[in-house]
Design goal:
Layout (H helix, E strand, L loop, with lengths): L10 E4 L8 H15 L7 H16 L7 H15 L6 H13 L6 H10 L3 E6 L3 H8 L8 E4 H4 L6 H11 L6 E5 L2 H11 L2 E5 L15 E3 L5 H7 L6
Parallel strand pairs: 1-2, 1-4, 2-3, 4-5, 5-6
Helix pairs in contact: 1-2, 1-4, 2-3, 3-4, 4-6
Length: 237
């Protein structure tokens, strides 16, 4: 199905971590603290995160569905074991607590307010649990109308089930939604398969775009979203 790129979306949906919330920065800070506690401060933090991500993404797609908190616990234990480091319960519990405390990027609240003032409805669609993301949503100025999680859908991105559940809960078709995200291999992968409109936020991280998919737009951060929407004729001012 070919969608009209000129139809003004009713809902704008967002990935949370890396798009609205400073995920990379928060995760890197926590891993540094963790390795320092274990006397392994010289260990490559990027290597740690790469291993952790590999385990997390595999577990998310391995049935039966597990909570994000449980996946985080298993991923932490597997990562530390792979690196030959001891694992204590607080290693994962501290990370789970830290996720909910991670702050938004500086431009996020102002952009969300502008979008609300323009009459858009705003929803987060995230690979997490309800209680974990609650701390992040509380920092977004009350501008988010709905939060749809993997816990609610019983599926993790890039599985289409999470997005289908979100669209069903919002009562819209994919032509009534614009999705804004930072993750190529989770959100853009789903957009490629499902055909919904998608804006990629490329904050200059090491994430690479998909080789076989071009998003509707690529922007450096959320402060550019208003200009993009004005250019589409979807904004009043």
């Amino acid at each position: 199905m070919i969608l009209s790129t000129y139809t003004r979306p009713r809902w704008i949906t967002f990935d949370c971590y890396g798009t609205l919330i400073q995920w990379d920065e928060g995760l890197l800070s926590y891993v540094r603290e963790l390795l320092e506690r274990k006397g392994s401060a010289t260990l490559d933090t990027d290597a740690f995160i790469t291993i952790y991500d590999r385990h997390e993404h595999r577990l998310e797609q391995t049935p039966p569905h597990q909570s994000f908190a449980d996946i985080s616990r298993q991923s932490m234990a597997l990562t530390l074991d792979e690196l030959g480091l001891p694992c204590e319960p607080e290693d994962a519990e501290g990370l789970i607590r830290r996720i909910g405390q991670m702050p938004p990027f500086p431009e996020v609240q102002a952009t969300l307010k502008w979008l609300k003032d323009q009459g858009f409805q705003l929803c987060i669609v995230s690979n997490t649990d309800d209680d974990i993301i609650a701390g992040n949503v509380a920092q977004l100025g009350g501008h988010i109308d709905r939060v749809i999680t993997a816990q609610q859908a019983q599926a993790y991105k890039p599985n289409h089930q999470l997005f289908r559940h979100a669209h069903q809960q919002l009562g819209v078709g994919i032509d009534e939604v614009l999705h804004i995200c930072a993750s190529p291999h989770l959100d853009l992968e789903a957009a490629k398969g499902m055909g919904f409109r998608c804006v990629w936020i490329d904050r200059g991280t090491k994430r690479k775009p998909l080789t076989d998919y071009t998003p509707d737009a690529t922007l450096p951060d959320l402060s550019r979203v208003p200009d993009y929407l004005r250019g589409k004729g979807w904004a009043n001012v």
